[in-house]
Fold this protein.
Amino acid sequence: MENFDVIVIGAGSGLNISSATSSRGLKTAIVESGPMGGTCLNRGCIPSKMIIHSADVAEMINKAKEFGINPKGYKVDFRKITKRASRLVDEDSRNIEKGIRADKNTTLFKTEGKFVGYKTLRVGNKTIKGEKIIIAAGTRPQIPNIEGLNKVDYMTSDEALRLTKQPKSLTIIGGGYIAAELAHFYGALGTKISIIQRRDVLIPNEDREIAEEFTKIFSKKYDVFLNSDAIKVSKKDNKTITTIKNRNNNKLKNIVSDKLLIATGRVPNADILDVARIGVKTDKKGYIEVNKYMETTAKDVWALGDICGIYLFKHSANLEAQYVYYNAFGKKKMKIDYHAMPHAIFSSPQIAGVGYTEEELKKKKIPYLVGKKNYIETGMGTALNDKDGFVKLLVDRKTRKILGCHIMGTDASTLIHEVIVAMKTKQSVDILTDAVHIHPALSEVVQRAVWNIR
């Protein structure tokens, strides 16, 4: 058995900790069966945004006539789009691995790990033990129990980002952010999209008003089947047939497509590690339970990232990694501060949110005010002809501090950042009007949403 000062399981945001411990001279082990960089670099945010940008460009060309430009047409080199993204992220991953292997204080075990005793793992044909354990092993795509699914070829987001031949038609089971982003990617490039969503709106975890408007827009672009369950999948003549059942009237419908994408959520990898063996508790969904210091229920074992199920974002995992490092190796423990944790969906239109939704405020009975402004009512919004975009601010009735903000429209993921800063510093919403905004920059829409607070 080989002993280490620290064992980091997972080479995503866990690498933030392993690089720090190694620089301190601590004997560090990294356990990771896949490519270095984790989900974000290899199967998530980085490659998806690369290919989605191609979809954004295509959509811009398709809308060019609105602005007096008549393009002669274009061809989609689908293979080049996905290959470019795969090549770049694979190169980054290889370079990270080279750096790890060259580090004299770090040992990489490129295999799957499983706990066999307290702070002890079996990795391949070796057994290792660590003084401190950091679990950052992430999640994997959830595969629903649908009749016939195991007999047909289907994709998850892992494969959808690396497909080299564009399907003429694609059925997506699921209506969350992964479904929204990949529907935009394939749909903007010309694939016929069908989305099967069991809920009454797409992206149901967003503010209800945002979700409803987004669903209306997507329903004009694609075939969206709400309140519907996929109950059976079969194959015929190289086509996938998905049978759906409407929850309201029990009517059945068959959807025929070239490809099938499963986007029904994620499940944590805690079961693969067998964390229960060392006294690490998980919740009913299998996520590892941690306290405000990111400590698990086992002494000297911390967890961070998607496997904890608090926020499934790369930026939240990076934040958690900072606190785990402080608490595991610092002199004083610090409670993690998630205040003003934002997120974005890189679909078309883009979605961004931070803080409470209006529904959450109502449920908690927190008195609030609402400020809204449509993009099209501003100079740049008019220039962009963004008729759907809007900003929605939720403000404390007494203190006028920002409780939440939700944006749908062009560059929503960028626009929301001035709100995030105001929230994080606990400033009054009025700071957004006190700050001079460039005219007619798109950010004026945020300022004017404050003017409209009622």
